[in-house]
Design brief:
Structural class of chain B: mainly alpha
Number of strands of chain A: 14
Mean pLDDT of chain A: 90
Shape of chain A: globular
Number of helices of chain B: 14
Helix content of chain A: 40-55%
Shape of chain B: flat
Helix content of chain B: over 70%
Strand content of chain A: 15-25%
Structural class of chain A: alpha/beta
Largest sheet of chain B: 2 strands, antiparallel
CATH architecture of the largest domain in chain B: Orthogonal Bundle
CATH superfamily of the largest domain in chain B: MetI-like
CATH class of the largest domain in chain B: Mainly Alpha
Number of helices of chain A: 20
Largest interface: A-B, 49 and 45 residues
Number of domains of chain B: 2
Distance between the termini of chain A: 51 Å
Mean pLDDT of chain B: 89
Low-confidence stretches of chain B: none
Order of helices and strands of chain B: HEEHHHHHHHHHHHHH
Radius of gyration of chain B: 25 Å
Oligomer: heterodimer
Radius of gyration of chain A: 25 Å
Distance between the termini of chain B: 33 Å
Chain lengths: ~475, ~300
C-alpha cells in the first residue's frame, strides 16, 4: 500500500513544526526582576497560608547575585508530584516544587531533584536547628534533597465530653475520666467502657477506639510495638516479630468488636473534612490524628471538648513515646532555570520568620496551624498559637522514638501493600503472620530491583 | 486525484491526531515494554526481564483473576439482560418510546457521576440498597426472635457491606445499569427480523420459545457477536468505576483490576517499562479473546444476504 504524498507531507510538516517549537515556555523576564515559579499542592486555608508566605517573601525584594529582584510566582496544582515529574522529563520544570516527603526518595533515585548541599555549604545554612526526625527525612544517601515546609506528627486525640459522659463507668473500672490512656492495656479498658451499643438491637452506637478510623497509618502500628519496616536501604522487615505482635493485637481487637461489623459501621462515617467526621460527631471517642486536626475541630465543631496525648507504646518501662512523623517538603527539580533564586525562597521559608509565619496559628488561621520543624521557637509563639496542645506534638517530634517516612524508593507501593494486608487481616481473611509474610514476599523483590537499578545508574554516572 | 487529495487533506487533522497521539504511543509502548524506563532516565534495554518479572508477580496474577472474573460476569450478564430487555421492549406495543427513554437515560449520565451515586447506593450504613433489603431482614429477624428469644444481637441479619463483601457484584450492578444502549442495538436488529419468518414458524406450530431460539437468535446473531466483542474490549479496560468506588483496590485488592494496576505502576511507581509490558499483555488478552469469540461464533452467526 502506498501512503499518499499529502499524508506524508503533512505529517512531516507537523514533525518539523514540533521540532521548531519544542522548547520550554519561559515566562517573560525583565532585566531587574527574576521570576521563580513554585508549584504546590495545598488548597483551602493551607494554600492561602503558603500564598501569604510567598507574598511576604516577595514584599522583601530579595536580590540575586546579579542584583535582580527575586519574584516568586506561586501556583496551586493537583497531583503536583506527577505534573512536576512530567515537567522535569520534558525539560520544563518549575523552579520549586512542593512534594510529600515520601516522594523525595524515589525522585532522588530517579535523578529528578537538585541536591541542596552546595547551597547549604555556600551560605553556611544551619541545619542543626531542625528537630532530628525532620531534617533526617530530607537526607537520603548522604545528600539533602529537600527542606521542610510544614512538618506533621500524629497523636491520640480524645473526646473529653465522651469521657465525662461515661465518668461513672470509667471510675468504676478504675480509670481516670480526666486523662487519656497511658498504656495499651489501659487503652483497651478505656475503649471497652466507651463502646456503646443499642441495648435493643445490639447495633454499634459509639466506639471507644477504632484503629481503622481514619486508617491512614495502618502501616505504622508496628512502630508502637517496637517493630520496624526496613533495615538499611535494601532489606524490608515486614515480618519483624514486633510488627506481627502489633497486628496480632489489632486482629484480637477486630475480633472482639466484630470484624465485618466495624468495617461496615465505619462506612456510615462522614468525610474527614466535615462535621460528620467520626471524631467530631462523637462516634469514636479516641482517634489517632495529625497536628492539623485542631484546625478541623475549630472549623466544624468549635465547642468540642478534646485533648491530645501520645498514643501509648508497648515499652512501658519509661521509654520515650513513639511519634510517627511526616512532612511536606520543598525541592528544586532537576533542570530548574533559576536554582539560585529558588534556594533563596527555600531559605526564607526555612527561616524562623518564614516558618513561624507559615506554621503559625495567629490572626484566626493566618498560618497553617502546625508546629515548626525547629528545635526552638520565638518566645510567645507557642502561647499565641491556635493549637492548644502544640507542645504534645513538639515533644513527640523530639522523642528519640520519633519515626520519619521510610526512606525507600518503593515506599508508596510498600505502603499500599501493607494497607491491603491490614484490611485482609482485619477482616479475618488472613492471619497477621500470613498477611505480613505476603507483604514481605511481594515487596522485597521490588526493592531488590529498585536497588539494582539505582546501583546501575550510579555506575553509569561515574559512581555518583 | 484532486478529489482524493482534497479528501485526505480534510481527513488530515484526524490522521495527524491518531498518528501522534495513538499510533506513536502505541508503538513506542511496545519498545518500552522491553526496557526499564522511569520517564526521567533514558530507557535501558532489559530484554524480556519485565515479562519474566510479571510472570512472578503475585499482584499481577491476583489482578488478572479479578479482571477475568469481572469480564465473564459482565459480558454474560450484559448479553442476557440487554437481550431480555430488548425482547421485552419489542413485545410491548404501547409506551415503547417511554420505556426506551427510561432504559437509555442511565447511559447519558457521565461515568464519574454514576460511580459516585452508586458508591452511596452500596454504603453499608445509609445506602439505598441496604435500605431496601433491611426491612425484609428485620422481618426475618423478628420471626427468628419469636422462635428463639435468646438470639444474640451478633446473629441478627443486616444488609451486607457491599463494597468489601461483594466487590464484583457491585461493579456488575453498576455496569448493568448502563445496559440500555446495548439493548437498543438489539432492539434495532429485532425490528429488522422479517415478519414472514415468524409467520412461517407459527404455521409450523412453533412455540414462543422455539420462535426465539430458531428465528430471533439466529437472525440477530451478528449483533450478539458485535456486542460481545465490544463488551470484551470495554469491560477488560474498565477503569473509572473501580478507580472511584474502590480507590485502594478494595478490601485485600478484591476490586483491583489490570487497568488500575497499569495506572499505578506507570504514574504512581513511575515504572513505565513494566507498565508498558502489562499494557501489552492486556492488549494481547483482548485480542485473543476477540479472536476466540470470532472462532466460536464462526458456525453460529448467520449473516443474512451474505
Amino acid at each position: 500500500m502506498r501512503i499518499p504524498h499529502v499524508v506524508v507531507g503533512t505529517l512531516l510538516l507537523f514533525f518539523i513544526f514540533s521540532l521548531l517549537f519544542d522548547r520550554p515556555f519561559a515566562p517573560a523576564q525583565y532585566d531587574d526582576v527574576v521570576n521563580v515559579t513554585y508549584w504546590e499542592k495545598w488548597t483551602g486555608f493551607e494554600g492561602e497560608a503558603m500564598q501569604r508566605t510567598i507574598e511576604l517573601f516577595n514584599s522583601k525584594h530579595f536580590r540575586n547575585q546579579k542584583n535582580q529582584i527575586i519574584h516568586c510566582r506561586y501556583l496551586t496544582t493537583t497531583q503536583v508530584d506527577r505534573k512536576s515529574l512530567l515537567g522535569i522529563a520534558g525539560g520544563n520544570p518549575p523552579d520549586l516544587a512542593g512534594f510529600w516527603s515520601y516522594n523525595t526518595f524515589s525522585f532522588a533515585d530517579m535523578g529528578a531533584l537538585t541536591p541542596l548541599d552546595d547551597f547549604i555549604q555556600r551560605d553556611h545554612f544551619d541545619t542543626s536547628k531542625y528537630i532530628d526526625v525532620f531534617i533526617q527525612s530530607c537526607q537520603y544517601h548522604d545528600k539533602t534533597w529537600c527542606l521542610p515546609t510544614t512538618p506533621a506528627i500524629v497523636a491520640l486525640h480524645w473526646n473529653k465530653d465522651l469521657f465525662h459522659a461515661s465518668a461513672k463507668e470509667l471510675t468504676a473500672a478504675g480509670l481516670d475520666p480526666e486523662r487519656a490512656p497511658r498504656t495499651l492495656a489501659e487503652l483497651e479498658r478505656y475503649a471497652e467502657v466507651l463502646t456503646k451499643r443499642d441495648p435493643a438491637t445490639g447495633k454499634m452506637l459509639q466506639m471507644g477506639f477504632l484503629p481503622t478510623e481514619p486508617g491512614w497509618w495502618n502501616w505504622a502500628w508496628g512502630y508502637y510495638w517496637g517493630g520496624k519496616l526496613y533495615e538499611g536501604d535494601d532489606k524490608l522487615t515486614a515480618t519483624d516479630p514486633k510488627n506481627i505482635e502489633a497486628w496480632q493485637w489489632m486482629s484480637r481487637y477486630a475480633e472482639k468488636y466484630g470484624r465485618e461489623e466495624t468495617h461496615s459501621w465505619q462506612q456510615g462515617f462522614g468525610s474527614f473534612d466535615s462535621p460528620q467526621n467520626a471524631f467530631l460527631n462523637g462516634k469514636v471517642a479516641m482517634v489517632v490524628q495529625g497536628v492539623w486536626m485542631a484546625n478541623f475541630i475549630r472549623f466544624h465543631n468549635p465547642h468540642l471538648n478534646w485533648g491530645c496525648a501520645p498514643f501509648p507504646a508497648v515499652h512501658e518501662n519509661g521509654g520515650d513515646p513513639v511519634g510517627i512523623a511526616d512532612m511536606d517538603v520543598i525541592t528544586i527539580p532537576r533542570g530548574a532555570r533559576h536554582p539560585d533564586e529558588a534556594w533563596q525562597v527555600i531559605k526564607f521559608i526555612n527561616s524562623t520568620e518564614g516558618m513561624e509565619f507559615l506554621c503559625g496559628g495567629r490572626d484566626n488561621n493566618g498560618g497553617q496551624g502546625k508546629l515548626t520543624p525547629f528545635k526552638t521557637t520565638t518566645p510567645g509563639w507557642i502561647e499565641a498559637h491556635t493549637h492548644p496542645y502544640l507542645q504534645v506534638f513538639i515533644d513527640l517530634a523530639k522523642s528519640k522514638n520519633a519515626v520519619g517516612t521510610p526512606k525507600l524508593p518503593i515506599w508508596d507501593e510498600y505502603k499500599k501493600e501493607l494497607h491491603a494486608a491490614f484490611d485482609s487481616m482485619w477482616l479475618g481473611k488472613s492471619t497477621p503472620e500470613e498477611a505480613l509474610q505476603r507483604v514481605q514476599d511481594r515487596m522485597q523483590p521490588k526493592l531488590d530491583e529498585a536497588t539494582r537499578l539505582r546501583k546501575q545508574r550510579a555506575q553509569q554516572h561515574g559512581g555518583e | 486525484m484532486q478529489r482524493r487529495s482534497a479528501g485526505l487533506l480534510f481527513a488530515m487533522p484526524w490522521i495527524v491526531g491518531i498518528t501522534v497521539f495513538s499510533l506513536y504511543p502505541f508503538l513506542s509502548s511496545f519498545y518500552y515494554s522491553f526496557t526499564n524506563f522511569s520517564v526521567l532516565q533514558p530507557p535501558v534495554w532489559v530484554g524480556l526481564d519485565n515479562f519474566s518479572a510479571i510472570a512472578k508477580d503475585a499482584v499481577f496474577w491476583q489482578v488478572l483473576r479479578n479482571t477475568l472474573a469481572l469480564s465473564v460476569l459482565c459480558i454474560l450478564g450484559s448479553i442476557v439482560i440487554s437481550l431480555g430487555l430488548a425482547l421485552t421492549m419489542n413485545a410491548v406495543t404501547r409506551g415503547q418510546t417511554l420505556y426506551s427513554v427510561i432504559f437509555y437515560l442511565p447511559h447519558l449520565i457521565p461515568t464519574v457521576v454514576s460511580a459516585i451515586v452508586w458508591m452511596w447506593i452500596f454504603n453499608a450504613q445509609c445506602g439505598l440498597l441496604n435500605g431496601l433489603i433491611n426491612p425484609a431482614l428485620e422481618l426475618g429477624n423478628s420471626v427468628r426472635k419469636s422462635f428463639n428469644p435468646a438470639l444474640s444481637p451478633d446473629a441478627l441479619w443486616s444488609g451486607p457491606d457491599w463494597r468489601s463483601a461483594w466487590p464484583l457484584s457491585c461493579l456488575f450492578m453498576l455496569s448493568m445499569w448502563g445496559v440500555g444502549q446495548t439493548a437498543f442495538i438489539y432492539l434495532a436488529k429485532l425490528k429488522d427480523v422479517p415478519e414472514e419468518l415468524y409467520e412461517a414458524a407459527e404455521i409450523d406450530g412453533a412455540s414462543m420459545w422455539q420462535k426465539i431460539r430458531h428465528v430471533t437468535l439466529p437472525m440477530i446473531s451478528p449483533i450478539i457477536l458485535f456486542n460481545t466483542i465490544m463488551g470484551i474490549i470495554g469491560i477488560m479496560q474498565m477503569f473509572t468505576e473501580p478507580f472511584l468506588i474502590f480507590p485502594d483496590g478494595g478490601t485485600d485488592r478484591s476490586a483491583y483490576f489490570l487497568p488500575q494496576y497499569i495506572y499505578d505502576t506507570a504514574f504512581n511507581y513511575m515504572r513505565m517499562g513494566y507498565a508498558s509490558a502489562l499494557s501489552w499483555i492486556l492488549f494481547v488478552m483482548i485480542l485473543l479473546l476477540t479472536a476466540l469469540a470470532f472462532r466460536i461464533s464462526r458456525d453460529r452467526v448467520y449473516y443474512a444476504g451474505a
